Amino acid sequence: MEVIERPDEMQRRALQWRREGKDIGFVPTMGYFHEGHLALMRRARQECDVVVVSIYVNPLQFGPREDFQRYPRDLPRDLRMAEAVGVDVAFVPKDEDMYPDGFQTFVEVTELARSLEGFYRPNHFRGVATVVVKLLNIVLPNKAYFGEKDFQQLRVVQRMVRDLNMPVEIVPCPTVREPDGLAMSSRNTYLSPAERQAATVLYRALQSADALFRNGERNTVKLKAQVWAVLSEEPTVFPQYVEIVDAETLQPVAHIERPAVVLLAAFVGAARLIDEWLLVP
């Protein structure tokens, strides 16, 4: 596996692959890999001639009181893991190359990014959209792979790609979970053993809503109340929001008549965790 740091070198290599008629699969990440990341890489390996993974902790998507400085990083470990699943190139840019002196161009998706994560993390999605556009322009993939755990991010990126006529297919991939249901996340490393156990209440809460839904409940007030009730059973978990929204528009719905998604965020110790669960009538 080759490691490329400079954006211009990465782009030259991508243009060469394109001229050779090769399909490029791309997995953008912030590193500190877990099985969720590796599942995206394996999917890309199955579907594409060349697989590129980026490892870049993007400062633009962190707020001033968030965890940019302490976000887990272990590049040698990540490179070993990526190589083991068949990645061809790891693109590992530096801040000064991604955002050089004088950088002043940003990408913003408006309506989809206003609520949920966008409300609690102002400018987060501006940072996400900007870095994703830059990465797509550098790597020039045919397909880019995103996990559904960051459901709002997935929809923001899909909307951006459609609106800007970008020639790339965004491939959604299912959330990967631990055996006890906790969604895999690099931020899970912040959890103490007791907090790690407490965090499983997020999955149990989503499962309880799913069970109620499967029994015929379509009223989202009642479904959300069920999620809140289960979350309240764990006093060390502090939910920030629980919402049920249309799976495409991310607008709140009162009664589920088409695919909807339960989205939640909660603080568990020092970790802020998010999760999702799709409800399909």
TrEMBL record:
Residues noted as binding (R)-pantoate in the record, renumbered to the chain: Q61, Q153
Native organism taxonomy: Bacteria, Candidatus Fervidibacterota, Candidatus Fervidibacter
Pfam family name, one: Pantoate_ligase
Enzyme Commission number(s): 6.3.2.1
Membership in a protein family: Belongs to the pantothenate synthetase family.
Name recorded for this polypeptide: Pantothenate synthetase
Record function comment: Catalyzes the condensation of pantoate with beta-alanine in an ATP-dependent reaction via a pantoyl-adenylate intermediate.
Organism from which the protein derives: Candidatus Fervidibacter japonicus
UniProt keywords, alphabetically: ATP-binding, Cytoplasm, Ligase, Nucleotide-binding, Pantothenate biosynthesis
One Gene Ontology term, aspect cellular component: cytosol
Residues given in the record as beta-alanine binding sites: Q61
Binding site for ATP: 30-37, 147-150, 176, 184-187
Keyword check for tRNA-binding: no
UniProt superkingdom: Bacteria
Enzyme class: ligase
NCBIfam families listed in its UniProt record: cyt_tran_rel (TIGR00125), panC (TIGR00018)
InterPro entries in UniProt: Cyt_trans-like, Pantoate_ligase, Pantoate_ligase_C, Rossmann-like_a/b/a_fold
Subunit-level organization: Homodimer.
Localization in the cell: Cytoplasm
Pathway(s) this gene product operates in, as recorded in its UniProt entry: Cofactor biosynthesis; (R)-pantothenate biosynthesis; (R)-pantothenate from (R)-pantoate and beta-alanine: step 1/1
Note: The reaction proceeds by a bi uni uni bi ping pong mechanism.
Keyword Ligase applies: yes
A GO biological-process term: pantothenate biosynthetic process
Catalysed conversion reaction: (R)-pantoate + beta-alanine + ATP = (R)-pantothenate + AMP + diphosphate + H(+)
